[in-house]
Amino acid sequence: MTEILKLATANGIWAALFVFLFFYQLKDGKQREQKYTETISALSKSLSQSTDIKEDIEDIKDSLDEIKTYSQNRYSKKSAAKKENAT
Asked: Residue 77 has what DSSP assignment?
């Protein structure tokens, strides 16, 4: 213990404090980076789910357009048949 105190006084307490804070900052930086990585992963997962939902909505729109076209064609044929029968 006395040897550490001698080194601290010889090199200055500021040098020891600098080294301590430097390593503390490195450790804290690793933890922060880990949290950022987890956040990015969660956001990427959410984005891929949003993309899947968008594709599903596009499929539903296409299906509705097909149903609409089919209904319009069927109605047009019935109207044409009624006009033909009326004459």
From this structure: H
Rounded CA gap, 55 and 61, in Å?
10
Distance CA 69, CA 75 (A): 10
Distance of CA 6 to the CA centre of its chain: 54
**pLDDT at 83 (0 to 100):** 67
Compute how many other C-beta atoms are within 10 angstroms of the C-beta atom of residue 8. Answer: 14
CB 16 within 8 A of CB 8: yes
Mean pLDDT over 15-44 rounds to 92
Amino acid at position 28, single letter: D
3-class DSSP state for residue 26? helix
